[in-house]
Request: fold
Amino acid sequence: MIPKLTKKEFLDRGHFDFAVAFEEALKRKPDAIGVVLFENLMMDSSSRGAMTAMIVGPTNTYKSAEDCEGKFLNEMPSQRQHPVAWVERKEFLP
Reply:
């Protein structure tokens, strides 16, 4: 199960300095249910720690955080990013 975080925990985990980009993206996607954080966890990769935040919802690639379980971004093994956390929409847009 992908851990669900608060807004502050999510921003801290992803080393994001501000929430505005997430708020704006979620406003453009009114049916989005949250944001999932993917991270490269390979210890021997020069891309270790690279992150991508992805909106999830009914009209997105992944419909929910649960849909991200067992999935990854990027095909090259050393570039793969796995889901490590997610945050609900209401944390950014109460």
Summary: Strands lie at 34-39, 51-56, 82-88. The CA atoms of residues 80 and 94 lie 32 Å apart.
